[in-house]
Fold TfoX/Sxy family protein.
Amino acid sequence: MASSKNYLQFILEQLSELDEITYRAMMGEFIIYYRGKIIGGIYDDRLLVKPTKSAIAYMTDSVYEVPYEGAKEMLLVEEVDQKEFLTGLFHAMYDELPLPKSKKKK
């Protein structure tokens, strides 16, 4: 099942306090970027984030879910209706996220 654009717009609105939130559509789902780093994505109308140490600590009742068959587990964000929670989560995770890989020219 693909994610809806309505759910994407809802999540983007919840993250509107943050600068540089972008997304990329990929196979019916959406990858979410924060200041150029992949923080997670929207899969089957669920917001999932990378399981960094800070994200695990920030979300006291961490639930792991698989975004799609064959993928690594990610953390399900259930508090999507709480703007302050989401903003704090993204701030907490940012420093732990890897820098994007540079694209090598052939």
